[in-house]
Amino acid sequence: MRANNYKTIKHQRGLGMLQWALVIAVAGFFLLFAFKVVPLYAENRYVESALRSLEAGGEKVGEMTDAEIRKKLGNFYMINNVRSEGPTKNIKIDRRSEDLLITVDYETRVPLFYNIDLVLSFQNHLDSSRPGQCCKPATATK
Fold this sequence. Notes:
- The protein is α+β, with helices and mostly antiparallel strands.
- The chain is built from 4 helices and 3 strands, in the order H-H-H-H-E-E-E.
- Helix 2 (17-56) runs antiparallel to helix 3.
- The longest helix is centred in the first third of the chain and has 40 residues, at 17-56.
């Protein structure tokens, strides 16, 4: 029985140097990916919050001029440190007969490593005909 016990202990070994290098490389890749992507999603949360603040503000969004809407969004972006050009340059305001649609659709490109870039696209819509359903686009219903 003692020889059998020694045999099982002998076969139980940890990871070798090559396996540890592989584990560290994979963990490093995911950490690099997280450090590049998480701030972009956090920034998009601020864009959503800016649209919600328009909806929750004291005055109605439909009664505001386009310049006032852009100014309020710009101020919110500046206070919350939104640095990307996408949210500031891609504000589109569509006034319909009875309602208002504000869209902030943008793409952000961030270099991952060497010549590989990540492209993230965000769609943020505020539709005055759907209060409380900010900030995702409405699905097409037939």
